[in-house]
Fold this protein.
Amino acid sequence: MNEKFFDQKKEKQARMINAALKVFSEYGYYHASTDEIVKNAGISKGLLFHYFNSKLGLYSFLYDYATRVVTLELTQNVEKNETGYFELRKQIYTAKINALSQYPYIFLFLKKAETEDHPEALAEIEDRRDRYNRIISTLLERADITGFNSKADYEKVGNILDYTFDGLMEKNIKSDPFRADFFLEEALEYVDMIKDVTYEEQ
């Protein structure tokens, strides 16, 4: 990647990144069109390739950038000693929504990258994808599960919360304008509701 990309104004950087996140999240690596990316970003294709050399260069940069943004938000929002199952989830979701407030398609992009199987793209991101997944897994592994009632399966509870978060995310990012604060309030309400029916320690 050409480091001059970061010499551009923040607004222009964000516009290019968001355009690429959106297109790659919709089509995956192989079917993503650089023509559509530059159209959404409001730049020329020549400028895109000046900064990133190739579509693969852009995709690789984008994956690194997205995971760094998310990791930074997790570092800032998730307390190091927090082990409460639902509080930990709340902090993780808060971190994710902070990332979404800057880059609305960041998690749809990362979700699409989870199933990316094009050899060229996979060779570029596979190791980094594994490292990113370990960061998330490590956070969740420290959650205290002893407070669940006897009828609750904590793994299924986690799945319900994640599926709910993903559904709310897709609904909210399509709203105009996207309001991260409304999304956060709604997401945390669902966490509290699930806690009320599955957890004994209030």
Notes: The chain has a mean pLDDT of 94.
